[in-house]
């Protein structure tokens, strides 16, 4: 696992594993191996549906304490269905992730902004 930055919390990773992500609906992916590979780089939380099923498999990289102090926000990655993409995320997280290390250009292919849900009755 990556070292914790001095005096701070490391990057954390959230993987969606529910109705689409992490299931047989996304074929050709070893979901368990992907989650374990991410765990080698950072603490991983397995989440139920993140409600962006059209982007399955979804991985969210949350910034470390240092990254948050620098103003970084979580980065959402979708369609992470190739081991090479997982490796690119692992490398970036090990380098420090959001707000600490520049995001490799290749990860722009997977990054997306989730839509903000609106509550009933608001516009």
Question: pLDDT below 50 for ≥5 consecutive residues: which ranges?
Answer: none
Q: What is the N-to-C succession of helices and strands?
A: EHEEHEHE
What portion of residues belong to β-strands?
5-15%
Helix/strand structural class:
alpha+beta
Major beta sheet summary = 5 strands, mixed
Number of helical regions: 3
Radius of gyration: 14 Å
CA-based shape: globular
- Mean residue pLDDT: 89
Describe the structure.
This protein is 22% helix and 15% strand. With 123 residues, the protein is of the alpha+beta class. It starts with 11 loop residues before the first strand and ends in an 11-residue tail after the last strand.
How would you briefly describe this protein structure?
By secondary structure, the protein is of the alpha+beta class. It is built from 3 helices and 5 strands; from the N terminus they run βαββαβαβ.
Secondary structure blueprint with pairings:
Layout: E1 12-16, H1 31-39, E2 44-47, E3 59-62, H2 65-69, E4 75-77, H3 83-95, E5 111-112
Parallel strand pairs: 1-2
Antiparallel strand pairs: 1-3, 3-4, 4-5
Can you tag this structure with a few keywords?
about 120 residues; alpha+beta; globular
């Amino acid at each position: 696992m990556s070292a914790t930055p001095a005096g701070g919390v490391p990057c954390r990773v959230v993987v969606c594993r529910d109705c689409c992500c992490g299931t047989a609906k996304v074929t050709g992916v070893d979901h368990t191996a992907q989650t374990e590979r991410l765990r080698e780089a950072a603490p991983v939380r397995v989440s139920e549906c993140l409600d962006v099923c059209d982007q399955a498999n979804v991985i969210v990289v949350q910034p470390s304490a240092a990254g948050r102090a620098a103003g970084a926000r979580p980065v959402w990655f979708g369609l992470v269905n190739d081991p090479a993409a997982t490796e690119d995320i692992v490398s970036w997280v090990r380098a420090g992730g959001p707000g600490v290390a520049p995001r490799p250009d290749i990860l722009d292919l997977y990054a997306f902004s989730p839509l903000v849900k609106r509550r009933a009755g608001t516009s």
